[in-house]
Write a structure and sequence with these properties.
Number of helices: 14
Strand content: 5-15%
Bound molecules: pyridoxal-5'-phosphate
Order of helices and strands: EHHEHEHEHEEEHEHEEHHHHEHEEEHH
CATH architecture of the largest domain: 3-Layer(aba) Sandwich
Largest sheet: 7 strands, mixed
Radius of gyration: 22 Å
Helix content: 40-55%
Structural class: alpha/beta
C-alpha cells in the first residue's frame, strides 16, 4: 500500500500582516466561532444562522432584496453565479473592462454562450459613461451591463450613477462586482438601482475566503425565471439554491457550516461598528497612507479622484525591483503586499487596507516597512517624512 511520504508536522502558520489584495486579516472573534461545534445544515439553529446572515447581508449591501445569500465558493463563484444565471445562448451583454476582474467577467459571460460586447478602458483609469453610451448604441438590445465597482488589479473605484442610468434607459439589467468595496466603501444596491451584485468574504468583510455574498432584485429574478434554458452549472443554479435559502429549506448542497458561522460573526462586527463609520475609517486610513507614500517619493497609480479606499496602488519607482521589495517586506516585517497583474506586472504595488486591517497602526507600520524596503535598494525614502505626512492627515 502507499504510505504517507513523511511524518507531517502540525500546522503553525506565521502571523502575517496581510496588506495585499486579499485575503485580509481576520478578527479573532471570527476565528473563534469557526472552532465551535458543527450543526446540521437543516438544524433549526442553523436555519436561524442563515436568516441572521441574510438580514446582515441586506444591511451591508443596503438592499431589501429577498434573494440575498452567500454562495458556497470564493468571490469568483459569485461572479460565475450572477453571470451564468442571468445570461444564456442568444442573449447579448456589455462588459466593462479595465483590469483583471473585468477580464474574468468577459470570460465567464462568453462561456454562457451570450454575445459579449467589451468596453475597454486603460488600466488605472475608470470607464467613461460615454463609452457605455456608445456600446449601447451599437448593441441596443443588450440584456445586461456588467462592471467592476472596485477593480482590485488597478485600485480604481468606478463611478456608478451614469452607467446604471444608461443601462436602464436601454432596458438592460446591471450586474456589479463589489468584491473589494463591500464593507469598505459605500455600496448602495437599492439606491443605485443595481439589479445583481456579488462580493467575497476575504476582502473588506474580513472573513476567511470561502463564501460569496450575492444579491438580486425582482427584475433580475424575473429574468432568471424567464430563461429558456436551464442554468448550465448545477451547483450555482440560483433557482435551486433559492429553495434552500428561501422558505422551503429544500436540500441542495451541504452548506459550509463553519464558514457560515464565520460570515455571520464578521457581519455582526460590521453592524456593531456601523457601515458609515467603517467607510470613513477606510477613507481616512487610505488618505493617511497615500500622503505618507507621496512624502517618501512614491507615486499613486490609480487615476486621481477615483481611488479605492480599501486598496491603494503605487508605481514601483524606476530602478527598484518589485519582487525584491515585496520579499523584504515579507521576510523582515511579516507584511504581505501584492504586485501588479497582467500588463502592470512588475510596475505597481497593491496595498490593501481592508476591513479590520484598515488601522492607523498598519498605516504607520506599512510606511515604515516600505521605506526600509526602498532604502535597501538605494532608493532614498524618508520614513520620518512619511510618518509625519500620515500623522498630519489624522490630526487634520
Ligand atoms: C478578489 C476578487 C475577485 C475574485 O475573488 P476570489 O475570492 O479570488 O475568487 C473578483 N473580483 C474582484 C474585484 C476581486 O477583487
Amino acid at each position: 500500500m502507499l504510505e504517507p511520504k513523511k511524518k507531517y508536522g502540525e500546522l503553525a502558520p506565521s502571523e502575517r500582516i496581510l496588506l495585499g489584495a486579499g485575503p485580509s486579516g481576520v478578527d479573532p472573534r471570527v476565528l473563534r466561532v469557526m472552532s465551535t461545534p458543527l450543526l446540521g445544515h437543516l438544524d433549526p439553529e442553523f436555519i436561524e444562522i442563515m436568516d441572521d446572515t441574510g438580514d446582515l447581508l441586506r444591511y451591508v449591501f443596503q438592499t431589501e432584496n429577498t434573494m440575498t445569500l452567500p454562495m458556497s465558493g470564493t468571490g469568483s463563484a459569485g461572479m460565475d453565479t450572477v453571470l451564468s444565471n442571468l445570461l444564456e445562448p442568444g442573449d447579448k451583454a456589455i462588459v466593462a473592462f479595465c483590469g483583471v476582474f473585468g477580464e474574468r467577467m468577459i470570460d465567464i459571460a462568453q462561456r454562457t454562450g451570450a454575445e459579449v460586447k467589451v468596453v475597454s478602458g486603460d488600466w488605472g483609469r475608470i470607464i467613461e459613461a460615454e463609452q457605455i453610451e456608445a456600446a449601447f448604441k451599437e448593441m441596443p438590445d443588450a440584456k445586461l451591463l456588467a462592471f467592476v465597482h472596485a477593480e482590485t488589479s488597478t485600485g480604481i473605484m468606478q463611478p456608478v450613477d451614469d452607467i446604471v442610468r444608461i443601462a436602464h434607459e436601454h432596458g438592460a439589467l446591471v450586474a456589479m462586482d463589489c468584491v473589494t468595496s463591500l464593507g469598505g466603501a459605500p455600496v448602495w444596491l437599492d439606491k443605485w438601482g443595481i439589479d445583481a451584485a456579488y462580493s467575497g468574504t476575504q476582502k473588506c468583510i474580513s472573513c476567511p475566503p470561502g463564501l460569496s455574498p450575492i444579491s438580486m432584485n425582482a427584475r433580475a429574478q424575473k429574468a432568471l425565471n424567464s430563461r429558456k434554458t436551464a442554468v448550465p452549472s448545477w451547483y450555482l443554479d440560483l433557482t435551486m439554491i433559492e429553495r434552500y435559502w428561501g422558505k422551503e429549506r429544500f436540500y441542495h448542497h451541504t452548506a459550509p457550516i463553519s464558514m457560515a458561522y464565520a460570515l455571520r460573526e464578521a457581519l455582526r462586527i460590521i453592524a456593531e461598528e456601523g457601515l458609515e463609520a467603517r467607510w470613513a475609517r477606510h477613507e481616512k486610513n487610505a488618505q493617511a497612507f497615500t500622503a505618507g507614500c507621496k512624502a517618501m517619493g512614491l507615486e499613486p497609480f490609480a487615476q486621481e479622484g477615483y481611488r479605492l479606499p480599501s486598496l491603494i496602488t503605487l508605481k514601483v519607482p524606476a530602478n527598484v525591483d518589485d519582487a525584491a521589495a515585496r520579499k523584504h517586506l515579507l521576510q523582515k516585517f511579516n507584511i504581505e503586499i501584492s504586485g501588479g497583474l497582467g500588463p502592470v506586472k512588475g510596475q505597481i504595488w497593491r496595498v490593501g487596507l481592508m476591513g479590520s486591517n484598515s488601522t492607523s497602526k498598519n498605516v504607520f507600520l506599512a510606511l515604515t516597512a516600505l521605506a526600509s524596503a526602498l532604502n535597501a535598494q538605494g532608493f532614498k525614502a524618508s520614513a520620518s517624512a512619511a510618518l509625519e505626512a500620515a500623522t498630519a492627515v489624522y490630526d487634520a
